[in-house]
């Protein structure tokens, strides 16, 4: 048996490609399976072993599905717009197109050398104009449907990358790309109105099969909150302060208001505020803090009272002071809160520090010690006195506010609108024209794709302008509506645009009439199983679900949810147990492993190393163990005989069941372990039947397909083992092998009964009592003694 993987691995990769073994069929009567893995960003560094693990999981499932008779779509592509290619282009003065093509070619070669069963006819590249034409098309549909807007706001700006970042890309106050500190900057930017889909994003979670932790993360990210807006008047002025509260029932307990330091009311009421210097100094201080710092619960409370300004409580006419404080965020709710120190800990800490009244309106706590957030009887609360649960009192209070026109029920979301822009070159141009007389005008659909122009200099402009702004021939254009002189938008779309719909394009990657043919979409959608990283749960996963819900609403896709099932792989850590990183020098290069041990060993190892969803350190010795296992499987071909080996029959059927079940549960490690055990058993027997051996190879094929093809061929197997029929097991053979034992009653042989080999006494006794003759012999008598010798005899002494 040839065990030189260097000769047979490339051979089978070529054969698979020539015979198009893994091509998905569009018009098939077979049941379909659409397995999706997160397409890579083709970085200059090439593939990481993490990619291999991320893809090897659904690779095994997809291969099993093909063998089970499914028409499988298991595609791959490249998410290739983005900063690294552009930064590299700036550094080396090479066009990002050139860099990207080179990286894609490198990734492709690497993935092919691992033998993944991707359908290479359907590869997509988000930077391809035939692809981004449709990304722009979706953007224009959203524009048409009022989901796109521009707004001047404070944005997260990375001074080092010179880009405006979404909240998702600047979590913890750090730039996701270069990790520098984010500063707040006022800028007019593009937004997608994702909050309009917040409820649908929540509803959709009810119908999908995602792990609970993923659902919970998405729910938290969306952060639906039910409460009320309440309008406070300002004494001596017509202005109002609108607050958002989840506890309108505590309105009688309000002893001050707090507005965010950036709240526009400060400018509006500047003439009334007597301590503007102190106010401005505080504002400057806040601008330096990240949102993350500001929202830490137990941080020391700071703030400044707006001298000269008092607010009027709409339920009792009471005048209360107004503060600015950084624990109130301008971007959430209305940027203003009614403070109820007796029942909110942040307000409590603030009131203690600034010597403000703490007024109890719900009994049950000890407000001399801390705020009480629980339920209880309402006191000091006018018409709410005597109410004793918050559900009823909130309802009653909202009725009152709505009746008086001083407030209303409201729902807020933590999720903010999606800042949809980058001021860089290597992205999809936003297809909008600014016309002095018509305003913002969509580029006509028939003019898509709006191509990225060629530029010489990729350096971003100062003040966060895109390099596109420097290209007059791109910028100057005619208005599509009135024909007058107009200017093109020069922002490009963010990294997350192209990946928000890519799974749809795989279904029909070359269509130039639609993003995909509706019939094909109907056949293939939804994605049956999507595997990826936990880091994408609240960004890519939410964005793409949002786009999909929108496309569903305009009738462009046939399913509401894009992904039926989602799973996540765990990281591969460096051999030292820390995260793999270049700086630590603990990165394992997958291609080096392929060269030294073979693709099959690498594939088997990344799935064998431990629980799939866990973070596991790389281990060379365990890798070698996988190599030895595969070599022994190959060597076992020397011990093959025609007839099945009876001692292996039951074991084989148990292995079929175990491997089949475990792959479905992503318990790849125990599936591979079961195959190892079976191989040990076969070695111990000294021989294995040909059919038994080939069955074992079929089970191993999803993990180590090259070796299995090679052996299959040498045994004259028909076609490719990669599409041979997946083995099924015989229930009857799952039971342990049986032996016949003699059953005596008071020394007389009454029967021989079949019991499992080596079974315990209690099992043998049950089996014996079930026999008619034995039952008759002991009927109505007491068993005073049983003597049992496993696999031989069971003897009852009765009286
Ligand atoms: C009065 C009150 C009394 C509140 C009480 C809570 C308890 P979620 O669940 O997160 O929506 N809040 C509102 N806007 C805020 C902002 N921009 N920055 C910081 N805090 C803000 O919580 C909403 C609650 O958080 C609101 O309800 C408000 O405080 C505060 F016993 O109003 B509450
Ligand atoms: Zn015009």
Could you characterize what this model shows?
The protein contains 26 helices and 29 strands. With 799 residues, it is of the alpha/beta class. Among the domains are: 225-413, Valyl/Leucyl/Isoleucyl-tRNA synthetase, editing domain (Isoleucyl-tRNA Synthetase, domain 2); 598-733, Isoleucyl-tRNA Synthetase, Domain 1; 736-798, Ubiquitin-like (UB roll). Helix 2 (49-67) crosses helix 18, helix 3 (83-92) crosses helix 4 (96-114) and helix 20 (646-664) packs antiparallel against helix 21. Strands 8, 9, 10, 11, 12, 13 and 14 form a seven-stranded mixed β-sheet that branches. Strands 2-1-20-21 form a four-stranded parallel β-sheet, covered by helices on one side. The model has no long low-confidence stretch (mean pLDDT 93). A hairpin with a 5-residue loop joins strand 8 (224-234) and strand 9. The longest helix has 19 residues, at 49-67. Zinc ion binds at residues 435, 437-438, 441, 479, 481-482, 484, 486. Zinc ion (ZN) is lined by residues 435, 437-438, 441, 479, 481-482, 484, 486.
């Amino acid at each position: 048996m040839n065990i030189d993987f260097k000769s047979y691995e490339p051979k089978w990769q070529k054969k698979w490609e020539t015979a198009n073994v893994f091509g998905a069929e569009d018009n098939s009567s077979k049941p379909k399976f659409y397995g999706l893995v997160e397409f890579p960003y083709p970085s200059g560094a090439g593939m990481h072993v993490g990619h291999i693990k991320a893809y090897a999981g659904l690779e095994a499932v997809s291969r099993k599905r093909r063998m089970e008779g499914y028409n499988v779509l298991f595609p791959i592509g490249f998410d290739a717009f983005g900063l690294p290619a552009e930064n590299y282009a700036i550094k080396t003065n090479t066009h990002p197109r050139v860099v990207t093509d080179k990286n894609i070619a490198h990734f492709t070669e690497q993935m092919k050398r691992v033998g993944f069963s991707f359908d290479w006819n359907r590869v997509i590249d988000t930077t391809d104009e035939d692809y981004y034409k449709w990304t722009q098309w979706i953007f224009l549909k959203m524009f048409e449907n009022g989901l796109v807007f521009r707004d001047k706001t404070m944005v997260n700006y990375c001074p080092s990358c010179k880009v405006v970042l979404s909240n998702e890309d600047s979590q913890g106050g750090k730039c996701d790309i270069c990790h520098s500190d984010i500063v707040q900057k006022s800028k007019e930017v593009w937004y997608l109105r994702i909050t309009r889909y917040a409820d649908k994003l929540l509803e959709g979670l009810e119908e999908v099969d995602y792990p609970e932790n993923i659902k919970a993360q998405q729910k938290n990210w969306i952060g639906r909150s039910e409460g009320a807006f309440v309008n406070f008047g300002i004494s001596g002025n017509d202005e109002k302060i609108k607050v958002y509260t989840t506890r309108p029932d505590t309105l009688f307990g309000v002893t001050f208001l707090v507005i965010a330091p950036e709240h526009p009311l400060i400018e509006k009421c500047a003439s009334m505020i007597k301590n503007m210097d102190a106010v401005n100094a505080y504002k400057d201080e806040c601008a330096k803090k990240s949102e993350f710092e500001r929202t830490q619960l137990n941080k020391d409370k700071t703030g400044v009272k707006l001298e000269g300004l008092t607010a009027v409580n709409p339920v009792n006419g009471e005048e209360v002071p107004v503060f600015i404080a950084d624990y109130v965020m301008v971007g959430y709710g209305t940027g203003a809160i009614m403070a109820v120190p007796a029942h909110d800990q942040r307000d409590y800490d603030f009131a203690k520090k600034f010597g403000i009244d703490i007024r109890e309106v719900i009994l049950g706590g000890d407000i001399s010690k801390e705020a009480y957030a629980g339920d209880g009887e309402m006191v000091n609360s006018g018409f709410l006195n005597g109410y004793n649960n918050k559900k009823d009192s909130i309802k009653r209070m909202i009725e009152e506010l709505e009746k008086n026109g001083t407030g209303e029920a409201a729902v807020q979301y933590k999720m903010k609108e999606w800042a949809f822009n980058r001021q860089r070159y290597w992205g999809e141009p936003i297809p909008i024209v600014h016309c002095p007389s018509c305003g913002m005008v969509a580029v006509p659909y028939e003019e898509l794709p709006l191509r990225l122009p060629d530029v010489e200099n990729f350096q971003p402009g100062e003040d966060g302008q895109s390099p596109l702004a420097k290209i007059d021939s791109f910028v100057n254009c005619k208005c599509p509506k009135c024909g007058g002189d107009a200017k093109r938008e020069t922002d490009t779309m963010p990294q997350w645009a192209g990946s928000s719909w890519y799974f749809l394009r795989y279904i029909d990657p070359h269509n130039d009439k639609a993003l995909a043919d509706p019939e094909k979409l109907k056949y293939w959608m939804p994605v049956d199983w999507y595997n990826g990283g936990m880091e994408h749960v609240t960004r890519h996963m939410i964005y793409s679900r949002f786009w999909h819900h929108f496309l569903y609403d305009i009738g462009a896709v046939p399913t509401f949810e894009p992904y039926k099932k989602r799973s996540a792989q765990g990281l591969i850590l460096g051999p030292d147990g820390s995260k793999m990183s270049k700086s630590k020098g603990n990165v394992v290069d997958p291609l080096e492993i392929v060269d030294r041990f073979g693709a099959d060993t690498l594939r088997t190892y990344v799935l064998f190393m431990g629980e799939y969803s866990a973070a596991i350190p790389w281990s060379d010795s365990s890798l070698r163990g996988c190599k030895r296992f595969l070599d022994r499987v190959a060597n076992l071909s020397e011990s093959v005989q025609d007839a099945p080996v009876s001692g292996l029959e039951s074991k084989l059927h148990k292995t079929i069941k175990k491997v089949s079940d475990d792959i479905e549960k992503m318990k790849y490690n125990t599936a591979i372990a079961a195959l190892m055990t079976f191989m040990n058993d076969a070695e111990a027997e000294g021989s294995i039947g040909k059919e038994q051996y080939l069955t074992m190879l079929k089970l191993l094929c999803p993990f180590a397909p090259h070796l299995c093809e090679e052996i299959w061929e040498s045994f004259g197997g028909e076609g490719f083992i990669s599409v041979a029929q997946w083995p099924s097991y015989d229930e009857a053979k799952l039971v342990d092998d049986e032996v016949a034992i003699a059953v005596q009653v008071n020394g007389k042989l009454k029967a021989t009964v079949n019991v499992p080999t080596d079974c315990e006494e209690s099992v043998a006794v049950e089996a014996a009592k079930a026999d008619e003759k034995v039952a008759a012999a002991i009927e109505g008598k007491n068993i005073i003694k049983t003597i049992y010798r496993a696999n031989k005899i069971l003897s009852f002494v009765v009286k």
